[in-house]
């Protein structure tokens, strides 16, 4: 993994799994990381593999390990900040000598190294791994991108200082030099696949994340929906919009709150925003939501999972996703599994499938007046078409998703080790 535990998102509480250090400090992780969940889904389908998640942690003084109920073993590795030079400029990134040593110790065993990153291979430590092991590697490398990769050369169309153009060109060709050591790259969205092809000529697979369609189901009865709405203090006869995610600028939840604030004279909507973030972004959203909360038109809900999160999906009439870029997102996959119509910016793999089947309602990433128009039309009963749940299940149900990954893993194991499953 390219990032450490999200301590800043839960600054007042210890992680779900944690260790206390002799000096009174602590470290740990939340077993909701996507690699933990993907590994759990894969191990549920096959016993041919073991699955380990390696996560850097600046708080770690040694390797800390915990095996989850799913069979996934999660490790926290000591890491430091290091200065790298991918282009002509320097940039900061993490470095873990222990991770490098672990890879060296494993390289003579049947192993697949998966490098995971939301924004693709432009992660300095991953380039370092390819530089060290690539020319002499004895094992396959599978790069799993989170769906938002952008090739450096694609950024040349943006406005920069002259030195930045040179930096992007250098980074682009350096990336191409090392990415040739990767055996397979997977992406989620069509737009990200096109970007990968600008730097990589090898095998590319379109693989998504997923969710459990036996759990994420439509609400069974209107009475259940109304009961949940009552518990959440949602006034009667409102059209309930729901948006969720980490409180990050690219999620544009601040812009969504401003859009609903612009139509606060309407009395027929209710917006739920659920998630968490660092102190700065959390306070920003709280301030924007305050006037609408006073009018009982907005609920800012803390981060939740499982049945409590499903209750919010069940209480809602339409799901909203307004990010500037996305890989999936899984939040929309869950909404599809729950049978909700979708209002979304045209980003991520879920946008690909909605466009293919003529479902949902798209709004431009940055044209906020169009957001207002779309919301007003939905309030006036122009509800977006819902994606057929059978189509969504085939695309996103965990067993189906896991089998697609296993197929790629089996190919790599046969290619490198002659083991056929």
* CATH C-level category of the largest domain: Alpha Beta
* Helix vs. strand class: alpha/beta
- Taken from the alpha-carbon principal axes, the silhouette is globular
State the strand order across the main sheet.
14-13-12-15-16-17
Q: Evaluate the radius of gyration.
A: 22 Å
Considering DSSP H and I runs of 4 or more, what fraction of the residues is helical? 25-40%
The structural domain count equals 2
CATH architecture of the largest domain: 3-Layer(aba) Sandwich
Strand fraction = 15-25%
Number of helices: 14
Q: Got a strand count?
A: 17
Q: Could you tell me the CATH topology label of the largest domain.
A: Rossmann fold
Distance between the termini: 27 Å
Mean of the pLDDT scores?
94
Task: Show the helix and strand layout.
Layout: E1 17-20, E2 26-29, H1 34-45, E3 52-57, E4 64-67, E5 73-78, E6 80-84, E7 91-95, H2 97-106, E8 113-117, H3 124-133, E9 141-145, H4 162-179, E10 184-187, H5 190-196, E11 203-206, H6 222-231, E12 239-246, H7 253-261, E13 269-276, H8 279-294, E14 298-302, H9 306-315, E15 318-321, H10 330-337, E16 342-344, H11 349-357, E17 361-362, H12 368-379, H13 389-396, H14 398-417
Parallel strand pairs: 3-5, 8-9, 9-10, 10-11, 12-13, 12-15, 13-14, 15-16, 16-17
Antiparallel strand pairs: 1-2, 4-5, 6-7
Structural features, described:
The chain has 2 domains: 223 residues, Rossmann fold (3-Layer(aba) Sandwich); 171 residues, Glycogen Phosphorylase B (Rossmann fold). It is built from 14 helices and 17 strands. 38% of the residues lie in helices and 19% in strands. It is globular, with a radius of gyration of 22 Å. The model has no long low-confidence stretch (mean pLDDT 94). Helix 6 crosses helix 9.
